[in-house]
């Protein structure tokens, strides 16, 4: 049964109250925090050879609930379901409870790579929130859980860090971490805005923290975008309420506008090298969200809601403003808007099928094309016609100021996403769609489909459990070699022993070797080669131990690393499973 438009309205238009007194939610530097941050021994590792300042752990606790001066843990958000059939539970990694997904379509022709999502929920979370890498099969590869459902990760993906000083580059994992304004816990800001205290994380291929990045000028790091550049910098969005008399726009006199900035920070020095402010360049009168809505969001008007940045071949920026229904091409040199696509002052005529509403993830494409995720939904303030959410690629005729639909990517059954989502170009020409507030992600052959044939060219489709969602979803290639050892546990079963082996994040492990013995210092091999069978492999053996150890083997049978020695009935557990 289709969710009502009112329910789909989701995080954008839910009631909020004026933000105040939340500066105390700024980064909590809990050095002993292992599961959702770094292990105590996890030090900063240089990227490309420089000697950076040690990264500061941040957003390790959720922002305090609205109206609360007490502990941030005093949350009203329901606890996650951790024992349901749609949650993974592991003997060797007992603290990891990622969601189980349902792979509903899996055809030949998908691009290589793994799936990157950051599951959370607007209601009752199924499993833990955090950053999650998955196989095509739906099996977890790496999971970094967060300690509270009031903490979220967003924009989790693989990027390349370029060091302009050394010329070296390396793949890294990046994401935003913090609390998103989701009622009833957070009613101080418009729904979907970042709470104070968030930041961006950069991890290397050994899952070591190498950078945390913060916004400047009193702005809050925003979950919507974090983009590494070839200049060794990071481009991201940041927001903050700015006091304003909103009566000229139909809002309260003692109000505020939620301003957004594009900021660029040098990763080596932390210095701000570029900024672009929406309030200085965009007329809030052009917003499709009425200023009167501020009355239900603490006096704060979300007029802009910037949600993506991309860099063009000439260095220009492509900036998406969800609540303006507009995409802007911005000159870096002077900050001027070169053209506007969509919205009340569009420089382009939009052809049939090229119209979009509440869009996300605008990207430059080769040949005067851009892509986006068109939410097109859902009878929200502004009076947009309701249309099915879909991936959209547009041809832009800049000289004639006309935009036409080149490719569309619809889902079957139809999806109506009130917020979030992305359209990712894959190296083999396919397109990967994260459906935002709808609990799906999909891959399509490049030719796409039409509104009346949403299953055409669908190669891969996954449904997340319950109403779990991910702001964006990506397919990326990734090789992970954890700095921490594998995990093991041993249990007695039917007169035999079963040894459980896992290595959170290892992409090279193909098999396991099991050692056992009566003395923990004198173990011998009892199982030479047990093929890896998912995140956790159960290996039966006639050995009674009582001491056991596992070794991870690569495709050539070479030992990659050994676990700690565990006793029958025990395991190496969270210490070895930690990310």
Word description of this protein:
- The chain has 579 residues and is mostly beta strands.
- The chain folds into 2 domains: 5-476, Neuraminidase; 487-577, Immunoglobulins (Immunoglobulin-like, Sandwich), CATH 2.60.40.10.
- It contains 3 helices and 35 strands.
- It has helices at 5-8, 278-281, 573-577; strands at residues 102-106, 114-120, 130-134, 140-145, 152-162, 169-178, 199-203, 209-213, 220-228, 233-244, 255-266, 272-277, 300-301, 306-311, 317-321, 326-330, 337-342, 349-350, 360-365, 369-374, 390-397, 402-409, 422-425, 431-434, 440-444, 458-463, 469-476, 487-493, 496-502, 511-517, 524-531, 536-541, 547-553, 559-562, 566-567.
- A 5-stranded antiparallel beta sheet has the order 1-26-25-24-23, with no helix packed on it.
- A hairpin with a 2-residue loop joins strand 28 (487-493) and strand 29 (496-502).
- It is globular, with a radius of gyration of 24 Å.
- The relative contact order is 0.14.
- Residues 1-46, 48-52, 69-75 and 573-578 have low confidence and may be disordered.
DSSP E strands, number: 35
Give the overall shape, derived from the CA principal axes.
globular
How many domains make up the coordinates? Answer: 2
The unreliable regions are: 1-46, 48-52, 69-75, 573-578
Fraction of residues in β-strands: 35-45%
CATH architecture of the largest domain: 6 Propeller
Could you please say which CATH topology of the largest domain applies here? Neuraminidase
- The helix fraction, in percent, is under 10%
| CATH hierarchy, class of the largest domain | Mainly Beta
Question: Treating each run of at least 4 consecutive H or I residues as one helix, how many helices?
Answer: 3
Return the average pLDDT rounded to an integer: 88
Strand order of the largest sheet: 1-26-25-24-23
Rg over C-alpha atoms, rounded to the nearest angstrom:
24 Å
Structural class: mainly beta
Largest sheet: 5 strands, antiparallel
